[in-house]
Design goal:
The complex is a heterodimer of chains A (318) and B (296). Chain A is an alpha/beta fold. In chain A, 49% of the residues lie in helices and 16% in strands. Classes of the chains: A alpha/beta (318), B alpha/beta (296). Chains A and B meet through helix 7, helix 8, helix 9, helix 10 and helix 14 of A and helix 1, strand 4, helix 5, helix 6 and helix 7 of B. Bound molecules: zinc ion.
Chain lengths: 318, 296
């Protein structure tokens, strides 16, 4: 029984609650709901979190922008080819800071999803993001990115216009900005498509978001030649916020209400807001040089390997 | 007293280095191309068998159709740099298994034996027609040249080595992308290597990347696409997503010649497609043109 089935059951209970009108049975059902939440909706498996991260009702980047930032003004286009609807960006205010916000936008309906290409950006999307980040650097504005994408779009046009170059160039440039970059993974953090706007000084994850090299389905089909093993793949890939915090890939987990962000969005918005304000205050104290070198050092040191030194060499080589 | 201590340290360093060398069971042979074991190798271009001896003499280019065979790191070094000039750096890295994937360690040790390499990337000091450079090669015979933690670290080390020695950097790319078995760590290598190239750029040093068959995925979307000058070998497959994934996604057949080196040159993503026979001369010309103006 995965989290979506549990959610259905919970919703049925809640529906029952709204139908009732006598005090006693309302109290009964309330206790039942709380009990169910505590018993069944906590301790999620990795696959549950994958399902929640992809949940249809999950707050999108636009929702987060509208509720976390004030006076947001959207800025369109990469000044070169077009405007990619999969990435939205602009300027907004948060807690006394003016920041550049860039987010990967999923739709809620099929129609919206077709328009924003299921949040799978083309090169012009990444170039738009880079243009806005350079602008932020010029005016010394911190950058906040909201990550929610299955990955960069694999298509003919995307390849012809240089998907690889666009992603690489973003990483290349992001490594040297003197303004802080704060990345928040709000849903799916899918491979290069997520990293291309996610090379932050600090990277946050909503509790039930995921961040991985590729989808669990893809992982299962590449490594195990069977995409139906996606659930097992999700478990072994270490893609949940808790795993990634433990591996030191991300800096903090932003808690979600029981059952996922979509059940009580305002709570999530408040949590994101306070996390961002705290981080922005921290970087207020740092010089551009410190911010730049701090970010460089963070990524320079990521790696899981071993190298011989003089001492442990003795044991191995006779 | 001080001198003695220094001497001691020097001796220790020497011992350490010699031990590192003995760690490798067999040293990388300098010029014994060893790709095909049989007498004939089938060409993927014209589907005819090619005599191996001829193939090697022809720098792994099919004599009849000009198809460029995939080349091992050892052979790439042999056909590109001056004989005896290559000095390998960055030895002694051990690949670990961060996600505790089944069979990963076993697979790595198999590839180690098969290719006689520690990992999919080799770098060192080299001279190309007497032009000095830091020379790095990804070997597509080692797990498709995929980038895990060790490859990422070694790429960054080679960039740092180039910065310390103030030498230009020449990288030959052949990679299927990120090393899936290392999960998120291999994704992060994209950021790590791209950041290192940025540093190199800030120091005004030249970086030439040569894209060979295949250059895809996370490697193509990081340091491979960041060369000051990007060369490519004819007909090499270059792209972000693999053709099969694209076909599955868009449910259309792909145009003729899509994602080849020539296609990318046509789209403005590659500076020049260079035949393998001209590669050495082209590189040495480019290096010499940057020797004076650059700070190398
Ligand atoms: Zn042939």
């Amino acid at each position: 029984m995965n989290i979506l089935d549990k959610e259905k059951k919970l919703e049925a209970l809640e529906k029952e609650l709204s139908r009732l009108d006598d005090e006693d049975s309302i109290q009964d059902i309330r206790i039942k709901i709380e009990d169910y939440k505590r018993r069944a909706m906590r301790n999620l498996t990795a696959w549950d979190r994958v399902l929640l991260a992809r949940h249809k009702k999950r707050p999108t980047a636009k929702d987060v922008i509208d509720n976390v930032f004030n006076d947001f003004i959207e800025l369109h286009g990469d000044r070169n080819y077009g405007d990619d609807k999969a990435i939205i960006g602009g300027i907004g205010k948060i807690g006394g800071h003016v920041v550049t916000v860039i987010g990967e936008q999923k739709g809620k309906t099929t129609e919206e999803n077709i328009q924003c290409n299921f949040a799978m950006p083309h090169p012009e999307g990444y170039r738009k993001a880079l243009r806005l980040m350079r602008q932020a650097q010029k005016f010394n504005r911190p950058i906040v990115t909201l990550i929610d994408t299955p990955g960069a779009f694999p298509g003919i046009g995307a390849e012809a216009r240089g998907q690889s170059e666009a992603i690489a160039k973003n990483l290349y440039e992001m490594s040297q900005f003197g303004v802080p970059i704060l990345a928040v993974i709000i849903g799916e953090g899918g491979s290069g498509g997520a990293l291309a706007i996610g090379m932050g000084n600090q990277v946050f994850m909503l509790e039930n978001s995921i961040y991985s090299i590729l989808s669990p389905e893809g992982y299962a089909s590449i490594l195990w030649k069977d995409s139906s093993l996606a659930e097992e793949a999700a478990e072994s890939m270490k893609l949940t916020s808790y795993d990634l915090k433990e591996l030191d890939i991300i800096d903090a987990i932003i808690p979600e209400p029981v059952g996922g962000a979509h059940r009580e969005p305002p709570k999530v918005y408040r949590a994101i807001q306070s996390t961002l304000i705290q981080a922005l205050a921290y970087y207020d104290q740092q010089s551009p040089y410190e911010i730049k070198t701090g970010r460089y050092a963070k990524y320079r040191n990521i790696g899981f390997f071993q190298r011989f030194n003089y001492d442990n060499l003795k044991g191995v080589v006779k | 007293m001080k001198r003695e201590r220094l001497k001691e340290a020097f001796e220790r360093k020497k011992r350490f280095k010699s031990k590192l060398k003995t760690y490798r069971e067999k040293p990388i042979p300098e010029k014994t191309p060893d790709v095909p074991k049989g007498l004939y190798e089938k060409c993927n271009g014209c589907k005819t068998p090619v005599v191996v001896k001829e193939l090697i003499q022809n720098r792994f280019v099919c004599p009849s159709c000009g198809n460029h065979f995939r080349v091992r790191a050892v052979d790439r070094i042999a056909i590109t740099v001056d004989e005896g000039s290559f000095v390998e750096k960055g030895l002694g890295y051990i690949t670990l298994n961060p996600l505790f994937q089944d069979h990963y360690e076993q697979k790595i040790s198999e590839y180690k034996k098969k290719t006689n390499l520690d990992e999919a990337y080799v770098y060192g000091y080299a001279e190309i027609e007497t032009q000095p450079c830091v020379f790095g090669v990804l070997d597509s015979y080692f797990m498709m040249g995929s980038m895990g933690s060790v490859v990422g670290e070694k790429v960054v080390k080679s960039v740092e080595y180039a910065m310390v020695k103030r030498l230009p950097l020449v990288l030959f790319i052949a990679s299927g992308g990120a090393r899936m078995q290392e999960g998120i760590f291999s994704l992060m290598q994209m950021a790590k290597t791209s950041g290192a190239i940025q540093k190199l750029h800030q120091q005004g040093l030249l970086y030439i990347s040569v894209l060979t068959h295949p250059t895809t995925g996370g490697v193509s979307a990081s340091f491979a696409s960041l060369g000051d000058i990007i060369l490519a070998e004819p007909k090499a497959l270059i792209g972000f997503a693999g053709p099969r994934v694209i076909k599955q996604t868009i449910k259309q057949s792909l145009p003729e010649g899509f994602q080849t080196a020539e296609f990318l040159q046509d789209k403005g993503m590659v500076d020049k497609v260079v035949h393998r026979h001209e590669m050495k001369t082209t590189l040495s010309k480019l290096l010499s043109m940057h020797a004076k103006g650059g700070r190398a």
